[in-house]
């Protein structure tokens, strides 16, 4: 079987409402809903709130990973959504999760890279 | 203070010795040594071995993250090393960790992307 590259979206987002970037709790709810909606399999995760503010999170999926690093002092968040295509083609799901997160944060894109890997 | 972009290296590596890609244990030792050597701060991690082979790992750092997804059936591993520059400039450390992992796997680069973000 030939290797099937997966889609990795890397984005830097501008988030007007810095309150969404202070702690991870609301983001975690959003991520968990997306994982359920798209029937992805979480293998474990790390969510961490910094003092005085900002959070970082990595979610390990059987399909690869999602990561988020927030910078409330700069109204920005950096996020990665990367799903492999081992058992099925997940490219549309990768894009859908990215769009859902962008909408969740009411964000503007500062920059976006899409890689097939 | 202006935002200081960090260096994110994303690589697809060809690994002749597929045995290194079957389970995560030796990789974990390597990663932990690198984290200690460079005085990075791990906030938590997920290492997972798949059945029958292959592993996936994400290491959440206060400086951002490292991720690895192995494909022993294709002699390849995909890895990301991303360190922010919030408290100090970590660009040289990002590069050094990437080189150390490439050496650990006796790997050839299939493709490498470096992003400042």
Polypeptide structure, described:
The structure is a homodimer of 117-residue chains. With 117 residues, chain A is of the alpha+beta class. In chain A, 23% of the residues lie in helices and 41% in strands. Chain A has helices at 25-37, 91-104, and strands spanning 7-14, 42-49, 55-61, 64-71, 76-83, 108-116. Chain A has a six-stranded antiparallel sheet with strand order 2-3-4-5-1-6, covered by helices on one side. In chain A, strand 2 (42-49) and strand 3 (55-61) form a beta hairpin. In chain A, helix 1 packs antiparallel against helix 2 (91-104). Chains A and B meet through strand 1, strand 2, strand 3, strand 4 and strand 5 of A and strand 1, strand 2, strand 3, strand 4 and strand 5 of B.
In short:
The structure is a homodimer of 117-residue chains. Chain A is 23% helix and 41% strand.
Secondary-structure map:
Two copies of one chain form a homodimer.
Chain A: E1 7-14, H1 25-37, E2 42-49, E3 55-61, E4 64-71, E5 76-83, H2 91-104, E6 108-116
Antiparallel strand pairs in A: 1-5, 1-6, 2-3, 3-4, 4-5
What is the oligomeric state here?
A: homodimer
Shape of chain A: globular
* Unreliable runs of chain A: none
Q: What is the CA–CA distance across the termini of chain A?
A: 16 Å
Spatial arrangement of strands, main beta sheet of chain A? 2-3-4-5-1-6
β-strand percent of chain A reads 35-45%
| Biggest interface pair, counts | A-B, 33 and 33 residues
Q: Please state the average pLDDT score of chain A.
A: 97
What is the number of helices of chain A? 2
